[in-house]
Amino acid sequence: MPSQPTTQLDTFPNPKPEIDYTIRMTLPEFTCLCPKTGQPDFATLELEYVPDQRCVELKSLKLYIWSFRDRGAFHEAVTNEIADALAAVTAPRYMKLSARFNVRGGVYTTVVATRRQPGWVPQPDITLP
To answer: CA-CA distance, 11 to 45, in Å (whole number)?
Structure first.
């Protein structure tokens, strides 16, 4: 039986919770519907997060993203909804979700939503010569 969209996000234990490291994902096939016209909106989602105790499982993420295909949603609302859902199940130290929507009416839209644990401070960047 083929997979179906779902709103359930699954997680697994972080294999290295004692250190900060970044997980980056690109999801180039996000679609939802314009709540005004019903026309499809297309976006590339860029997710990056520093996990704490839980990581998001990729197949469930794919099926979760698929669940928006037939839903009307404003860009700002849907980006924050996804960031909230991911943060709720993973409780990351830091998360950033960038949604780069394709042109609509001559306008490209990018919405960036961040979530951070209180008190978490990133390690300083190291610049090598």
So the answer is: 19
pTM for the full predicted model: 0.93
Across 8-116, the runs of DSSP E, i.e. the strands, are: 11-13, 23-33, 40-50, 54-56, 94-104, 107-116
HSE-CB for 84 with a 13 A CA cutoff: 7
| Least reliable range by pLDDT among 17-21, 75-79, 122-126 | 122-126
How is the chain split into domains, by residue range? 11-116
Can you tell me the distance from the alpha carbon of 114 to that of 83, in angstroms, rounded to the nearest whole number?
Answer: 7
Nearest to 112 by CA among 43, 38, 23: 43
For 11-64, the pLDDT digits (tens) are 999 999 999 999 999 999 999 999 999 999 999 999 999 999 999 999 999 999
Give the catalytic positions in this structure: 34, 41
CA dist 53 → 12, 26, 92 (Å): 9, 22, 8
Which architecture does CATH list for 11-116?
Answer: 2-Layer Sandwich (3.30)
